[in-house]
Specification:
The protein has helices spanning 24-35, 50-54, 57-73, 102-126, 205-217, 236-248, 338-352, 382-388, 403-408, 436-448, 453-457, 468-476, and strands at 3-4, 16-20, 39-44, 130-133, 135-138, 143-147, 153-157, 160-163, 167-169, 182-183, 197-201, 220-224, 252-254, 259-264, 269-273, 278-281, 283-286, 290-292, 325-327, 356-357, 367-369, 374-379, 392-398, 414-420, 426-433. By secondary structure, the protein is of the alpha/beta class.
Length: 482
Amino acid sequence: MMVAVSTEAQDLQQTRVVVVGGGPGGYEAALVARRRGADVTVVERAGMGGAAVLTDVVPSKTLIATAEWMTLFEHAPELGIRPAGDARTMVEGESAAVQVDLDVVNARVLSLAAAQSADIRARIEREDITILVGTGRLDGPQRVVVEDEDGGTTTLDADVVLVATGATPRVLPDAQPDGERILTWTQLYGLKELPERLVVVGSGVTGAEFANAYNALGAEVVLVSSRDRVLPGEDPDAAALIEDVFRARGMTVLSRSRAQAAVRTEDGVEVTLADGRVVSGSHVLMAVGSTPSTAGLGLEEAGVRLGPSGHIKVDKVSRTSARGVYAAGDCTGVLPLASVAAMQGRIAMAHALGDAVIPLDPKAVSATIFTAPEIATVGYDEDQLKAVGTAYLVRTLPLRGNPRAKMLGLREGFVKLYAHSVTGVLLGGVVVSHRASELIFPITLAFARRLTADEVAESFTVYPSMSGTVAEVARMLHQNRA
């Protein structure tokens, strides 16, 4: 559905847009607004790219990419790869003759994050967008007050305001991070040495990704999950596979174990569980969710409605309850993904400046969990299809029969597709695989364009390729309609 909105015939050359927050939602919105002729100012206190670039997505995925090399190297002996020269000879079943220098790894992680932030800043400045370093808060719906590091203030009048302030790691009252032994995911990159025994509290996406990464890097990992299984919000088959992989790689997974407190000891940490058990480690990562960064911004005083969790309430074109005020990203609680934040920001500015927009459809968003193997999803899952009473077919095929997977020495993973049992339209999909983040795209495209399973099946794939399994599962969904 296309939505076109007038902006009361105001001259776009005179439209003043202030974006509070320079993360993906903020800087993408700024670029859209500037290209439509608006006068744009971005307020950011930490650095362009925000937490997504500096402390969250870019650093974590860089660390995970490093860990992925360790995972792939595990298969080296069976592929006939041995160290050359005077390197230690590997024998069958022996671990790879490599080790991780975490200080170097983290230095590279932070360097790449800083470089990405600088690239974004340069691009913003090329577009003649003003950047103010400081903390912005609303003084009514059409004014933003910016406080800089020295306590000085700048007042900006605005026709349109976008709030994109993100979120911060949630902290338990009895597990206060100290940046040394008790850590949030933003503090991990200060470690100089690999933790001997890392206790990860929380088995959602963040906890699972870091547990997987540090296990691959060589740390002993204990994953504390308050639920029956890891990744409780994901496809049950995918979550079960990942948990089996975790255990097979030596990770300790404690299910139905809620953490209540974490304290430092003389040479490590102790995590106390709700049932009285105590888990010891050298470090603990608290991955228990996030809190929207919306406090103290003058939002409610400006007429912006917040939910019980503190998230900003927005509609599908990113409008808040205050006229002229939009919001994007993790502060809205829609979906905690950089891609969603960016799309929300783009939609918000197009809508605010009178362009036609397609409202955000959360079901069309593809998401990936960067474990090894990765889990990527799009569309509806089985519980959702049952809940709405949709007639559907589901087919699953393991990747172990895929020729490309065999060549790469990959054994774990599958492709699962859902299709309407009458029309054949693709309703969703799950890919568990090496590079599932890439393999989900054709399924996302098919879902967004309402293609049928037959249309997917009839499209050519390269042989051999991992994507061949996507087409093969689509062929399994074919129904004879003669």
